[in-house]
Amino acid sequence: MDTSAFNHGGGGEPIDWNRAAAGNAFVFMKATQGTRYRDPWFAEDFAAASRTSLLRAPYHFFDARGPYDAAAQARHFARTARAAGYTGRRPGELPPVLDVESTWVNGRAICPPHAGARQIAALLRHVEADFGVRPVVYTDHSFVALCLGGDARVLKGYQLWLPGYEREPRDLPGTDQGWTFWQYTDRARVPGIPGPVDRSVYRGSLRELRTMAGITGAPGDSGDSGAPGTPGAVRAAPGPPRRRPG
């Protein structure tokens, strides 16, 4: 799953993380956006999820307001994540995630200002330096087309988390690699979480995912995947992709 304040319902209902953990292996949680915004539920959610079996990591929504604010965004993300107890190295913690995507205005995807390859490269470099862990990158094909000129080489070598609600996402041009995480729906229903939630699958076994999170020798692991069905068997909800803010 991936969650943010959006997933706490109109009345700000808490998530029941014990119930949510029963049918899921991992969660990415929104921590920050830009240089100032902090998700109001992040610290509480991260602490609660950390008391369950869920493998977990925070994500930062890239929201550049100037041509040179990548370092400030990285510092804001690192401070917020650390204050909530995330280090990127504790057992159970997956690598930090950077969300870089196009913006939807009047039903049309546009490139956010100052979101070119130079800023992305700086953001990736600073976040890796802050945590000592190479981040996972969430992005989509429209961002690559609109903001990177159709060339995603700046993301080569990073584990990619790609959306594809009707079909498996295509490889990003210039990366020579496929997805590591596939966000296959934004309409899942998960016990313990109010309303619809995004759900993803990991390309690999649960043992491999736990190894990524610094856990080895998982008891009872027989190589099952981290979500119901293998990646090739996942079926997305019908209807066109619908992006929502962060």
UniProtKB/TrEMBL annotation:
InterPro entries: GH, Glyco_hydro_25. PROSITE patterns: GLYCOSYL_HYDROL_F25_2 (PS51904). GO terms for molecular function: lysozyme activity. GO terms for biological process: carbohydrate catabolic process; cell wall macromolecule catabolic process; peptidoglycan catabolic process. Residues 214-246 are annotated as: Disordered. Pfam families: Glyco_hydro_25. Residues 227-237 have a biased composition (Low complexity). Transmembrane segments: none annotated. It comes from the Bacteria. Belongs to the glycosyl hydrolase 25 family. This is Lysozyme.
